[in-house]
Design brief:
3 domains, 5-stranded parallel beta sheet, two-stranded antiparallel ribbon, 16 helices, about 50% helix
Length: about 500
Amino acid sequence: MDEPFAQSAPDDQFAQVTSQVNVPERSWKRRGRALLFFSDLVAVAAAVFVTFHFGPSLQQPLYGAAGFYGVTYGQVAGILIVAWVGLLTFNGSRSSRILGVGTDEYRLVIKSGLWVFGAAAVVSYCFQIQLARSLFLTTLPAGVVLLLVTRWLCRKGLVWLRSKGRAMTPAVIVGDAKDVTRVVGDLLRWPEAGFAPTAVCLTRGDSGGQSLLDDYRNVAFKDIVRWVQAGRVGAVIVCNNVPRHQVRKLSWELEDSPVQLIFQPQLVDVSGPRSKVQAVATLALVHVDLPKYSGWKFALKRVFDIVFSALVLLATWWLWLIIALLIKIFDPGPVFFRQQRIGRGGKPFDVLKFRTMCVDAEEKIAPLIAANGGKALQFKLDDDPRVTGIGRILRKTSLDELPQFWTVLCGDMSVVGPRPQVSREVSEYTEKHFRRLLVKPGITGLWQVNGRSDLPAEEAIRLDLNYVENWSLTGDVVIIVKTVVVVLTGQGAS
């Protein structure tokens, strides 16, 4: 196949599509970098001068082995600020490629602080300069914390803008209809990624009735470079199954252009830390670490579960009494709802929750499933008639799940993991679905922080499988923090 099948869209039509991106790409990137530079400068300066105020006097001179150096702490503060902000610039922490999503931005912020103060310690040792310990005990952690907070606030603002269709990079998606449909759907579902699909280039036939792609112009492969040069496309996302010679030709033609050339990997459920590229002459090999479900990392996860769940139970015991009283007052019956779920390795266990439904809810579920498609795995009602009045409040605030921390303490669940499902759902599993049972189910997970009840059932399972393939203790902490935000804002609750 020399050239993909596509009819080139007229320039005026394509311009009309790309004009839907409200903020020009280069404009928001410049503004974003300027805002981050200013916020970094303020955070670092505040940390340095505040901690110096309570530590060494800014006018106090430095002394070393050779005596007075003629340098004051005020001058050291200025050097420290310039070096710290400069390193944040040169290490790529403000790159548009990492803003809005992922942990790379935060990792580079922390790394820059360690590098600056590590260099200060080396210089102090080599020249035998007596630097105050407060620089390392207060200035470093204060600066890192302030930087992380300001970066988080800026990220929330960027994500909000992107949810409104602004601060986006217009992108053309290249590949066959199936892959392009999936990528376009994901970009629409997760606008925080920062890419706005504005056109598609189908390398195999037409959309074939794919309704999602009917809203986008199908452009010719040969016209992609022309539109890039005209500044109408900021990213070219290449999916699987695009012929190698075409990808190579495209990369050559895009040289020296500001566009981002992005490849959507075939191993879609493998995250960056698990993959490493090894170059051998002209051969590029991608090494993928196999997921581990035993060993010291899993033991550490269990220790974290015990400590975290015990702290939550100690901190919320008084809430249990209030919730139990409210349930008894507004809907007489058992306070707790006990149900058998399927855990790690297919082992059944009893999950404990505050009761949010009528007493005979389990007897009523079979006819409800039958009336809504007959599939237990995809069964979900937006307005379940079995939920009680007090139950709706408990579900909205996720307080009904507090007793699950006792289940975690007992070892049947984890704080973070796939959503626990009942046997009727597991009976409809396909081969890939059974991978959810390689780890313990969790109180929260990727499904909880990416839509909760708003998610389609298949998308929730897809997120569960992604967690199973790429879990890490650091990722668990991030999910827990995001869960707190989701619960407090009530996003996706039903």
